[in-house]
Structures are given as structure tokens and as C-alpha cells.
Task: structure prediction
Amino acid sequence: MTRSVSFKSVIYIILLIFAAEAIFILPFVLQRVFRPTVLETFAISNEEIGYCFSVYGIVALFSYFFGGPLADRFPPKNLMALALILTALGGLYYANYPDYQSLKWLYGYWGFTTIFLFWAPMIKATRLWGGRDQQGLAFGFLDGGRGLVAAAFGSLGVLIFASVMGDNNQFLDLSTKKAAFEQVILTSALLVGCIGVLVFLFLRTPKSATQSAAVSRMNSLNWNNIKTVLKFPAIWLLMLIILCAYTAYKATDLFALYASTVMQYDAIDSAKVGTSLLYIRPIIGVVIGLLADRTKPSLWLMVGFLLTIMSSLIFTTGIVNYQTEALFAINILLMAIGVYSCRVLYFATLEEVKIPLELTGTAVGLASIIGFTPDIFSGPMFGILVDNPDGVLGLENAFKVLAVFGMVGFIAAYLMKRLSAKHT
Result:
């Protein structure tokens, strides 16, 4: 596709950004911003919500496998629009506060709608927009824009929540909190559904995408594509990179809990911590994307993992507490920069290591099968750790585990960089 900036090109990336984050607002962003409130209103523990994510992850595991080739067969906008609308319908059920067992079924449903129908088409659409020379920028715009959308949803949610709660929110009864959070859920579901309609009506797939679909339609959904993709050594490294980076991203769910448990913030202020970090994602996305296009994505993946390791180790020392509020702000900022940098770039390496465009959907699906298994294990893992009777110790142990994942990711990114040198 042409790299000249046109009105259609701008509308395309804006709709893609809104869709890419809206799809995950209900299952992920709301509980990230309102983690203490979710635990209280649904009467569940950190471990139990972790098992909800495990159900999501198990369904997603199969969805990645079958949904990847599906993206090489059908227009992205049709699959993405259907996914958004179905996900929004799940939000209506979520607002009724289902019991724990039903909540697990709901997360399984979301695992299907957000992954099988959405994930690979979204990644492929982004790669097409970036062309050969601007993959870093394309994925930088995508993840940075997603951060801005998530921050907007989070801020709107906090505003609605606070307006219903009123003053002295620490002393209000559970029914008031549930009524306030119900309004947050319903508003989010409505917006997600509206974005789905807009995607269906106005997301115009580039000609190159149509041509790619036509070429691959005859041979997609078969084992030949899968066998071809698995022969690329870079795919195996990408699986490991995504696994470590996504585990780190899942750990950002702990920021609001850390603010509540260690920093002694109330429900609204702890929610603001999670929301405020989302506003730096656009800056990180664009800056890291531009830097990656001028060097290599794998290099900046190494930098991102290094920052994640450093900030995780600082949290394990116990020096970050309510008496060192400035250190808390600086350290979560450093971790956010590291984690978001890795999120921006892992799929940008597809072009760096020369994975064929027509196999993008299959490659994304296969890499995601292993890469996104943290959806299965990270929730229970972090939940068990932080549900320690000593909440502060539990959080410190969680960040020790995160530091280990960061080290593994750093090594994988280094090997990816060496491998990509052979293609230059």
C-alpha cells in the first residue's frame, strides 16, 4: 500500500486503535483499574479472579490456533466488528454480577470473542498499514493509541464511579459500590458495541489486504502453512518473547493493588494509579516505534526487558512504601516504560525476520498459542502470591517472579537480534 498519508489511511488506523483496545475493556481494563472494587463487589479473591483468567486463557489457546488461519481467509473488518458486538453483549451479563462459577463461563465466552474472531485480524491489519519500512511506527501507533483509549475508558469509568459514590467513599456500603460499578460496566459495554458498528461500516481494508486474502484463500486453514511457519526459528523465539512480555503486562494489574495495600490509597485513588499510567502508553508507543524503525525492534525489546527487570527488583526490596511516594511513582513509571515498550514491538519483529506477509495470520496464531499462555497461569500465579496473609510480602514475591520472566525475555530478544542480523 502507498505510504502517503491520506484521510482514508488516518481513519483506518484510528478505527483500528479504538477497536484494538475496546475489545479488551470489559475482560481486562476494568479489573486493572478497579481491581480492589472488582474483588469486593463480586466477592472473590485474587486467586479466584486468576482462575477466571485461566478459563479465558484456555479458550484463547484454541482460539489462537484456529483463529490465526481464519484471518488469512476473511476480511478483517467483518471478524473484528462481530467480535466487538459479541463482547459488548457479554458486558450486559457482567453488569448483573454473576456468581463465581458463572463468571468463569463469562470469561471463557470472552476468550472466544476477543481472540478467535479478533486477535489475528487486528495484527494483520496493523502490519498491512505499516508496510515494509514502518512496522515499528505502525505497532507503536497501535499500542500507544490503545493506551490512550484505555486511559480514556478508565478515566470515564473513574468519573462515573466517583459521581455515584460521592464523598467519603471509604465508608459507603457494598450496595452503593455495586450500583456505581454497574454503571461503569454498562457504559463500557455500550461504547464497545458502538465501536463494533463503526468498524463494520467504515474500516476499509487496503487493497493489499484484499489481494493477500485472495492469494491465501485457497491454501489457508491447512497444515502446509502451519508447517512452513514452524520452520522459521524466529517464531519460536517470538513465542518466548511474547510469553515474557505478556506476563510482565499482566503484572501491571498489581499496581492498583500495590497502591491500596502498601501505599494505603482508597478505592478511587488506587484506580487513578492504574488509569494515569495508561496515558504514557501513546508517548512510549510512538517514541519506541520510531526508534525501532531506525534501528531494530529486537534491540528495543532488550531495553524494555532490562527496565522491567530493574524496576521489579526495586519492588522486591521493600523500600517502596507509603513513606516513599515519589519512589513509588518513579518505579512504576520505569516499569510501565519497559512493559509497554515490549508490547509495542514483539509483532514488529515479523518484518525484521522476514516472515512472509501472506502467512501473517498463521504466524500470529502460532506464536500466540505459547506467547499468551500467561492468560492461563499468570492470574492464579500472581493471585496465590498476593493473597499471602502478609500482603506486602506477597506483592514482593510477585515482583521477584516478574524479574525472572524479564531475564528470560531479555535473553530471547538478544537471540532474536542475532538471528535478524542474518537477514540484513
About this structure: Residues 69 and 222 are 8 Å apart (CA to CA). The chain is about 80% helix and 0% strand. Confidence is low (pLDDT under 50) at residues 209-221.
